[in-house]
Write a structure and sequence with these properties.
heterodimer, A: 62 residues, mainly alpha, 2 helices, B: 254 residues, Four Helix Bundle (Hemerythrin (Met), subunit A)
Chain lengths: 62, 254
């Protein structure tokens, strides 16, 4: 972050930049967490289906 | 247009969500890019607040979305308890962290605006306190989801808590009218129209649309992950039952 940008925001530039940093960190972290969760579930589902856990023929009661 | 009943089929919902997600993300990116350009390079500094008006462009949409996601959760709670819609509690569970994130952004950006403008990061006035309560309710709902293993039981418990917590939503909205607060009264969503100059109102509205599309895209993504988690859970249970049966047959034949 260049000093000129902070200067152009006046005496409260630090508060403005801190606000935008909070938005980026919170929403970026949330999006990243959702993406990781999505991929983890996709992997788990693929592994289970590969083992045949999803086949209807295997759900018959004895 | 798919009806709510059509969307009760998770497979159909997954297909529709996969189609909608890129469009929502694209509109969000476009609106956020245009909105931030207008907010930073076109909108003037406020005659009283100076450059700290730039904080309002993220603070206000975050506050709106914190309330919008809670209202969506309350509707989903009705869907769980009254209509027993299969995706209602999925929608509710997926919305909680997103609403919590927007509440947190609202609180943090409000504090960063409050210090230079009010001389303090925090005051226990009705608006700030009720938004803090909203954030805590979101955390409580997320914690309750983790407490109960069975999704349908957890869904009903969370639905009741969500509906009880909904009483806080009108309190937040009207707190600035009902009590004498340090927080200023509504200046956009009010009778008689907005009091903000169009040069600041337009960037604010465009950013609000952008953040809404972003929030909805995150919600669809989180719902897809939750549907897959439930399928993984069901398949794991079925696989365990199959292995139990196999072990019993092998034990009997030995």
């Amino acid at each position: 972050m260049s000093a000129s940008l902070v200067d152009s925001l006046g005496p409260h530039g630090g508060f403005i930049l801190a606000s935008y940093a909070a938005v980026i960190i919170v929403l970026g972290g949330l999006a990243f967490a959702i993406l990781l969760d999505h991929r983890a579930q996709q992997r788990a589902l693929a592994a289970l289906e590969q083992r045949g856990a999803g086949r209807r023929s295997e759900r018959k009661s004895p | 247009m798919a009806s709510l009943i059509d969307l009760a089929n998770p497979t159909r919902f997954m297909r529709l969500a996969a189609l909608l997600l890129p469009w929502l993300a694209g509109v969000a990116a476009l609106c956020l890019a245009v909105g931030f350009y207008l907010a930073w390079f076109v909108a003037p500094a406020d005659y009283q607040q100076g450059e700290t008006i730039r904080i309002m462009f993220v603070h206000v949409p975050a506050a709106w979305l914190a309330l919008m996601f809670y209202s969506m959760m309350a509707l989903s709670a009705l869907g769980t308890l009254v209509w027993r819609h299969p995706l209602a509690d999925v929608a509710q569970k997926a919305a909680a962290p997103i609403g919590a994130a927007f509440s947190l952004i609202c609180l943090l950006t409000g504090a960063f605006w409050g210090k230079p403008m009010w001389g303090t990061y925090w005051v226990w006035d009705a608006r700030l306190t009720s938004v803090l309560v909203l954030f805590l309710i979101y955390l409580g709902i997320m914690a309750l989801w983790r407490t109960l293993d069975e999704p349908s039981r957890a869904g009903r418990a969370v639905a009741i808590l969500t509906l009880v917590g909904f009483v806080n939503v009108p309190i937040i909205k009207f707190s600035v009218d009902w009590w004498n607060t340090l927080h200023q009264p509504a200046s956009v969503l009010r009778m008689g129209g907005p009091t903000i100059h169009p040069s600041m109102l337009w960037p604010l509205l465009i950013l609000a649309i952008g953040f809404t599309c972003l929030g909805l895209a995150l919600h669809l993504g989180a719902m897809r992950a939750e549907i897959m988690r439930r399928r993984v859970r069901t398949l794991t249970i079925l696989e365990a039952e199959r292995l139990d049966r196999l072990a019993a047959v092998q034990g009997a034949s030995a």
